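Suppose you are handed a protein chain with no further information: no name, no annotation, nothing but its sequence. What can you learn? This example shows the usual starting point.
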Amino acid sequence: MTAVIFGIVVLLTAVFAFLNGFRDVSTSVALAVRTRALTPSVAVLLAACFNFLGAMISATAVVAVSHTWIHLPDGESGLSILVSSLASASAWGLLMWWRGIPASSTHALVGGLAGAGLASLAVGGAGVGSVDHSLLVQVILPLVLSPAVAYIGAYLLVFPTTWAARYAQPSVINQRFRRSQAIAAGAVAFGHGMQDGQRVGAVLLLALVAAGYADGESIPLWVALVSALMITAGTLFGGWRISHTIGYKITRVDPLRGSVAQTFSGVMLFLGAIALQWPLSTTHTVTAAALGAGENQHFSVTNRKLVMQILALWVLTPAAAAAGAFVLALAMSPLAG
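A reasonable first move is to predict its three-dimensional structure. Written in structure tokens, the prediction is:
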């Protein structure tokens, strides 16, 4: 039975990674497509390439992430927790995509792990170790800090950028910033691959350890390939519902402000993944940066009702995923027992 549940974990992880790329490609390239810096087809190919590179490079950090993230019980109990959390996080991600709402896959996954761990404790099993720390470091603090930093940083960065371009013709400004925005879109996709590739690889490594197939001190090549290839495959299919929300519905930006938003987002993702090793949500970072840059104009362009709805769903994401995983884990408890 252990081998069967492990196979289900691998399958669900691949689905989760695919949906991650499918939904978040929109986040990476929405502004570049909106300002016509890139055509949709070129934008998707660019995002796919840099997502793959970022996810492969992130494999070097997977072992460290898995050691400091959570601790699963051994055997079928730990694997069942992963099944429940992955299924719940994937279902919530699909619902958010269908509604065109940008939401964090990582927050849904951590919420699912917390819910499944509570269900395991409720039936007398072992829970998920360090999940309270993960909720604080990977959900609560990023949910509060990263959108605020992205919004304020992008808003303020518009001032020196517009000052530097004050004597240039509008056509020249648009042309230059479309070029820089194309580069920034690749940087955001690369940062997304590094951030989310770590999480997907860590899930597979934890599953290997729980099943007794590995000691967790090194990452097999197939784990890195599954993470990178499935995120890339999802990117190539591209879920444009979320792109329409970010690029057209919540705010409106010109090439200058689009470039500012994506450049600042890319810097934040790089710092989070490499320098600080903080799990930042690409969705939250890019959405908040787009709002910050869009707000720094002489006229109102923000759909505040939609923004409040998105913020409410960001808060609801870990709780909803936890509730779904709790129910699924209870249903699977006979297998885990």
